[in-house]
Specification:
This protein has six helices and no strands. It has a single domain, classed as Four Helix Bundle (Hemerythrin (Met), subunit A) (Up-down Bundle), CATH 1.20.120. With about 130 residues, it is an all-alpha fold.
Length: about 130
């Protein structure tokens, strides 16, 4: 089974690769996207495995996962993941759809750190 958190490793590599390449912005934008999906899909699996609620595998996942985390009878730490997912989604949308993203490198680094914290929190709660 694929471990969605592995996208964090890819995101880290993309941020590092952005240092000296001509694809700097593409690497940073992709790192933001991969960070979001690492967090979102880890959260979806956590809800399925630890809460027992199946998450739809369509575009509604972007809305349903944070809503379930915010409202479900889960640990307080898990509920605190919902705002992080909202922020990561907003950053991912900007990276994927806006021509100009101010402070792109900083956004990529912050997205990566926020996603890491989210994934590690949920993995810790799974044990």
């Amino acid at each position: 089974m694929f471990r969605w958190a592995d996208f964090l490793t890819l995101a880290e590599q993309l941020v590092q690769q952005a240092e000296g390449g001509g694809l700097r912005d593409a690497c940073l934008r992709s790192a933001i996207s991969r960070s979001y999906y690492a967090a979102l899909l880890t959260a979806a699996c956590w809800i399925r495995d630890c809460v027992g609620i199946d998450i739809p595998e369509d575009r509604t996942i972007h809305k349903s996962v944070p809503e379930l985390l915010a409202s479900a009878a889960v640990e307080e730490e898990a509920r605190q993941v919902a705002p992080a997912l909202h922020r990561l989604r907003h950053q991912r949308s900007n990276a994927d759809y806006k021509d100009d993203v101010p402070h792109l490198r900083k956004v990529a680094e912050l997205s990566l750190e926020l996603a890491k914290h989210t994934v590690f929190t949920l993995e810790r709660l799974s044990q």
